[in-house]
Amino acid sequence: MPKQKVDEQTIILEALKLFRQKSYFNTSMSDIASACGLQKGSLYHYFPSKEELMKKVIKQVHEFFKTNVFSHAYDKSCSPQERLERLFTSAEAVFLDKEKGSLLGNMGVETALMVPEFAELVRRFFTDFFHAVKTIYLDKYPEKIATELAERSVAEIEGSLMFSRVFNDHSYLKNTTKRILNRIDKTVVADKEVKETVF
Length: 199
Fold this sequence. Notes:
Layout: H1 8-22, H2 29-36, H3 40-46, H4 50-68, H5 80-96, H6 106-114, H7 116-137, H8 143-166, H9 171-183, H10 191-198
Helix pairs in contact: 1-2, 1-4, 2-3, 4-7, 5-9, 6-7, 7-8, 8-9
């Protein structure tokens, strides 16, 4: 029996689960309606298309990360080491969550490349991710090095997510998180020393 009442939030969460499990392209509106206990036609009262629903999903995931993950970067009551650890361990927990894990890892990027309408939304997510990480590194390193380390860290997380999913082995992501956290523990005073220490 279809559910009598389903709100937009429920649909977004069910769509997120299905998009992660089956991919955006292999998930139909019928699949989403069924997961929500709705008739397919009823789903269109909430979202006129799968594309519009995906946009909402991406925005919600982004907002979740801003509130629960990226926010750690700006907590000046903690040391840079503590902030980086909280940010990346929080991100890791979300990425590895089977039901609520983030869509905006490799799958989100691949989808954005195939559907241009999603590209700007995914770029905003990674821009905020990069800025949060760079903000932490700026407390210990010069601007140029902080930028390089932030770019490298986010790129490594992206790559390890791909390996974790391809090989169904979470150790790739966990090991990458450990390497990133080890970098902030290095103490240096000059650009040359920074490069020699962390690269």
